[in-house]
Amino acid sequence: MSTSTAQAFSEFNNTNLEPLFSAEQIQQRITELGSQIARDYEGKNPLLIGVLKGACIFISDLLRAIDLKLGIEFMAISSYGASTRTSGEVRIVKDLDVPIEGRDILVVEDIVDTGLTLSYLLANLKSRGATSVKLVALLDKHSRREREVEINYLGFQIPDAFVVGYGLDFAERYRNLPYIAVLKDPQI
Ligand code: IMP
Ligand code: MG
Q1: What percent of the chain has pLDDT over 90?
Q2: How far is the CA of 118 from the centre of ligand 2 (A)?
Q3: pLDDT tens by residue, 10-27
Q4: The whole model's pTM is what?
Q5: Ligand 1 in contact with 115 (CB < 6 A)?
Q6: Are 49 and 96 in contact (CB under 8 A)?
Q7: Main-chain phi, psi angles of 158, to 5 degrees
């Protein structure tokens, strides 16, 4: 008989995490978004552009919920230092490998917070001659908005809290959580 009372470590059931949306709730919402997008883009061949890394899990599930002929590409963006943050200047770290002239673009993002990243990215893509550029965001932290950004397809509205999981990270941790949680104390 073992005398050990030590419990196995669990990253997913960490006491610093307060569950916000379960894996089932997320899938349910994605199914709805996918059907809506398939209806709206019927007869078209949209190009989904995922913003790395946060949107990688969301786009993987969303893609399979859209019953259409479509394409997928990725971009990576990084914002400049805190001093230039308010100017909304962002840097494209990984650009598209394909032209988007004449394409119907759906930008897929994990969360819209201040809106600085997306307002830059959407304007940049529009300037490349796309037929249409629309935004799909899993989460919207609307109370923090500094720059107006139109979200055409939204998963969930959330309060002003720092959330992790389902692709979203805190210092690169927690992207692998199957659900979305509020990080109670970022110091831990
Ligand atoms: P913004 O809208 O330009 O402020 O930046 C949005 C980006 O900040 C998102 O793509 C995320 O990478 C990151 N971000 C903002 N809020 C959160 C959060 O609560 N958890 C994790 N990442 C966040
Ligand atoms: Mg992001």
Answers
A1: 86
A2: 9
A3: 999 999 999 999 999 999
A4: 0.93
A5: yes
A6: yes
A7: -130, 155
